[in-house]
Amino acid sequence: MKRQYTSQQGVALVAAIFLIVVLGLAVVVMSVLATRNTQQNTQSLLQMRAIAAASAALEHGAQNIVETGTCTSGTGITLTALPGFSVNLTCSQSAHNRPSQRITLFRLTASAEYGSPNNADYVWTELTSTIEL
């Protein structure tokens, strides 16, 4: 007895290979998206920490102005709560005469930096504040 072959033999194998390839591509895409999401979360966290470091430097400078009435700048401020951040504070002052009083304006600028510009985790921020005495 002779068997007759139909054209549908091997269709299941082709369908299985297609399904494996599609599922493999889906896994690769999910892996890439998860990695990018992790990098974005890390960058956001470091940016928030940089803002906190610059804010702490501004508060330190403002407290110094209120206590002493003088303007001091500092480079390489160390914040033990935020290791790895380089914080700089600059201060300038200018006197202005109003008809009824003399005022002094203090301009504080704080910058915070983490990492190096060639690093994927690099963040930098700058905050400015003006104080009138």
TrEMBL record:
UniProt superkingdom: Bacteria
Keywords: Membrane, Transmembrane, Transmembrane helix
Ranges that cross the membrane: 12-34
Designated name of the protein: MSHA biogenesis protein MshP
Taxon lineage: Bacteria, Pseudomonadati, Pseudomonadota, Gammaproteobacteria, Oceanospirillales
